Amino acid sequence: MRITAGVCLLLLQIVSVVHARFVSSRWLAWAPNDYAIEYKLQVQIDGRDLSTDEIGKRYQLVPDGVYENPAENLIDIVRQRERTYGRNDRAEALLVYRPNGGAPQEWRWPEK
Amino acid sequence: MAREMKSTVAPSRNPFRLGGVDLPMPLILVAKLLAACLLARLLWRDLPDPFLPMVPFLDSFRNAPYFGWALRGAALIGAVAVLLNYRLRAACLLIGSAFLLGTLSSRIYFENNRMFLGCVFFLLGLYERRTGPWLVRIQVMLVFFSAGLNKLLNVSWRSGHFFDYWSHFAINKQMYFQLASLLPQMFLPRFMSWMTITMEFSIAFGLLFRRTRPWAIWTGLLLALGMNVLTERTFGVFFYAMPICYLAFIEWPRSTITVLYDGDCGFCARTRRWMERFDLENLFAWQPFQQARDLYGISKEALRQRLYVVAEGKKYSGFRAFKMMALYNPLTYFFMLAALMLPQSAYLHHRSWVAVFFVLFFSPLFVPVGETAYAWIASNRHRILSGETCTVETPIHSENRGLHVGRPTWQPPLDPGISKHH
Question: A60 and chain B: CB distance < 8 Å anywhere?
């Protein structure tokens, strides 16, 4: 029983590592500090820009900084927030990020 | 007799004692050091309330304040229980569950080092004699293999662009940038990237085989040390937790370790008493060679010159013997962890230096220095600690006058326990 549970935990991680090969995000996939994403997050609700504190409360993220996971992890956070707790807020988010020092890229919510 | 702690022995409540629990020595040590790390870094306090969980079901606890407190309480109680040898496996399961649940219940909380801690504790809690330490071992190898693979398949890592970019805000050693400026453009970042990838794969595969394991562990230590020296970061608790987990790959001696010393030397006797104070597990059986039944093929002349340690049929003498005694003594690891975890002041960032010292001290590079120091002390032992009686002659005099073999003037106590109370 104990061995089975241990093997299952290890197998789940292997599945997660293999799955990560087919997607851009890296949740539970052992890619520690493999990314350096410089980002800036701006959010508007009803045409008003949210302050740093408001963004911090809404996503538990600082609005700009360096994130050491893929940008898709950041996108997942904002997307999940807006699809669940904040789905009635009609928030508009703009995430500008530079993955590993490359060219700046943008992601917007709502997605088109 | 395997040095597995028998559950029939009443567990001690001394946090530094490892006896009385049903895990083998290295795994108890891993659990305790990680628990100490968890408490010292207040990691239990960071466990989250559910917020944007990875598993949607956990959202149903979002407005339940007890959920986060339950996780924090479980981790705290579990860590204290591990240190006090109270239901160690159950306590490990509790901590592991708390960290894994915390990771699943908040995408914000997710960090690889926290997940690693959760997995290792959980697997320690699932220990069974049949698997031995292999669940924890596979966990460590899996992390390195996956990390190496992720880097290898990432074009930014292969080209060195990631390292070049990351170095500008992560590395605070000017020497790195000076060196980079002397070399062709992108040479150093590319070299560092490929070196990291190679090291991670070497660790993952090296840990698999007994013969390559020491090299893999040294590679792992150097990787952790190198990153810490360059950045002065601990990457959450990776800097502490990963080296601690290498202990799961160590073959601890299955029988008592014999220490053969010159019973005709007061300094040696005092050394014995001092060392026995720190031998909480009674791992070492000190024997004056004059009274030892078995000299393990070591000549009396050699034993008169140097102290010998015999562990699992392997013999170590002089500085190497003391080094092995330190490495096989669990207290050494508590001491090293404490030294590394001391708070750093704004002016003195000691952690990297302490880590460099430890790695250097236990590396083969330090052996010549250690042996020189040992030889000096050994040859002057009759002058050091003049309060002790020492009747041993120096080798030159001994050759001329004959030796005191079999007629020690100082009789060591037969019961090593008695000598501890002197």
Answer: yes
